[in-house]
Design brief:
- Helix content is 43%, strand content 16%.
- By secondary structure, the chain is an alpha+beta fold.
- Helix 2 crosses helix 5.
- The protein binds FE2/S2 (inorganic) cluster (FES).
- FE2/S2 (inorganic) cluster binds next to helix 2 and helix 5.
- One of its GO terms (biological process) is iron-sulfur cluster assembly.
């Protein structure tokens, strides 16, 4: 059912943790399954993502997709990171079962939410980036 790559990233997730004082951080959640993903980005003065870390309270596919998403955005510019869509993450994982596609969407949204936070903090506009709809950071922090 799951590809070897999915199992590998689930069993050995890369970049788990937090970044202290991140350039951008975003938290997203899926109301249906209740899974939550938080993504931290460290972005240098040239707009290159130097480090990416995540914390995911969620299913195995959510953990595998967050792990792969952090690997894919590292070393990219913020503009290039926008191309790390859920499709790109799924492809890099050799696919996901149809019922698990929404888990990869969470990863895409988490990247966007962290980039949005970075853009907001720095007063810049990232072309093509829309305000994330499911940023639930305030709700999570309030609980
Ligand atoms: Fe919801 Fe996987 S089941 S993120």
């Amino acid at each position: 059912m799951y590809s070897e790559k999915v199992m590998d990233h689930f069993n050995h997730p890369r970049n788990v943790g937090e970044i202290e004082d991140p350039s951008g951080v975003g938290t997203v959640g899926n109301a249906k399954c209740g899974d939550i993903m938080r993504m931290y980005l460290d972005i240098d003065d040239n707009g290159i993502i130097q480090e990416a870390k995540f914390k995911t309270f969620g299913c195995g596919a959510a953990i595998a997709t967050s792990s792969m998403a952090t690997e894919l955005v590292k070393g990219k510019t913020v503009q290039e990171a926008l191309e790390v869509t859920n499709k790109a993450v799924m492809e890099a994982l050799d696919g996901l079962p149809p019922v698990k596609v929404h888990c990869s969407l969470l990863a895409e949204e988490a990247i966007h939410a962290a980039l949005w936070d970075y853009a907001k903090k720095n007063g810049i506009v990232i072309e093509g980036l829309k305000e994330p709809v499911s940023d639930i950071e305030e709700r999570v922090d309030a609980e």
